[in-house]
Amino acid sequence: MTSGIAAGTEAALIETAHALADAARDAILPHFRASALVVDNKQAGGFDPVTEADRAAEAAMRAVLAQRRPDDAILGEEAGRAAGTTGLTWVLDPIDGTRGFMSGTPTWGVLIALADAHGPRYGLIDQPYIGERFEGGLGRATWTGPRGGGALGVRGTTRLADATLMTTFPEIGTPAERAAFARVAGGVRLVRYGCDCYAYALLAAGHVDLVIEAGLQPYDIQAPIAVIEAAGGVVTDWDGRPAHAGGRVIAAATPALHAAARAALAAPGPAEGG
Predict the structure, then answer these.
(1) Given 128, 151, 174, which residue is the final one in a domain?
(2) By residue range, what is the domain housing residue 194?
(3) Which of 90, 191, 219, 235 has the fewest beta carbons under 10 Å from its own?
(4) Which Gene Ontology BP annotations are present (predicted)?
């Protein structure tokens, strides 16, 4: 088995990622805000929704890869793993934020990452309904949308007291994890909820400063890691280790802000204001 990205292949890989995002857009948009949307529950004793749009989008992306990159591995939320021989894995979340999708909010997204043995090398966050796309890695850190585009870049915020913090669910993780999150939330300027992967795009674009979450899967976070790191930010787990396997994740605009948030997560008591 070979490993890594061969020199001179970056442009073709980026082109493939955009082809995947285009295919997902085409598969998803006919279902968004449709009155007859079919929603199934994947979790016995709880609620983990999946829609026909999730399944159709992942199938469309896998079809593109079968044509363009048949020897690469795939990890997708809906159809699981497919082995490869190149040392590269496409990590796919066809709709990150299915609860938002089924509620009609335009803050869900398609997540596409390209990873090797060391983690994500390139990531793409696409919001099909708005028409915005954020990409990072392999020499890219850019966004495009209906009102233009440009370079991605995180803000220079270093103090919790000046920071805007986002997470998807107010009831983050376990009771202990919720208490840790509350320590950070108590020391920041503003807390907002509910944006799923779009929150990570906003961090990379310089609009918010922190995203803290728990209970993530690899397909939830690998694309955001690549995009945020390319934009100059920091992403680790709550203990400061690589986060590409998922779990508890903290994404921050600057190393100083990341350190302050990690300290607040770890230590009981009021959050450090910077």
Answers:
(1) 151
(2) 160-266
(3) 191
(4) inositol metabolic process; L-histidine biosynthetic process; signal transduction
**Residue among 41, 123, 121, 111 nearest 76 (CA):** 111
Whether 95 has a binding-site annotation, put simply, is yes
Same domain, 135 and 20: yes
Whether residues 68 and 93 share a domain: the answer is: yes
Inside any domain, residue 65:
yes
Tens of pLDDT, residues 147-189 = 999 999 999 999 999 999 999 988 888 999 999 999 999 999 9
Residue that the structure tokens 């509910």 belong to:
194
Distance CA 67, CA 155 (A): 39
> Comparing C-alpha atoms, which of 146, 165, 145, 148 is closest to residue 157?
165
On whether 40 is known to bind a ligand per the annotation, the reply is no
Please name the residues in contact with 81: beta carbons below 8 A apart, sequence gap of 6 or more: 73, 74, 75
Residue 54 annotated as binding site: no
User: Binding residue per annotation — 177?
Assistant: no
96 is in an annotated binding site: yes
H/E stretch holding 237 reads strand 234-237
- Location of structure tokens 């793409």: 124
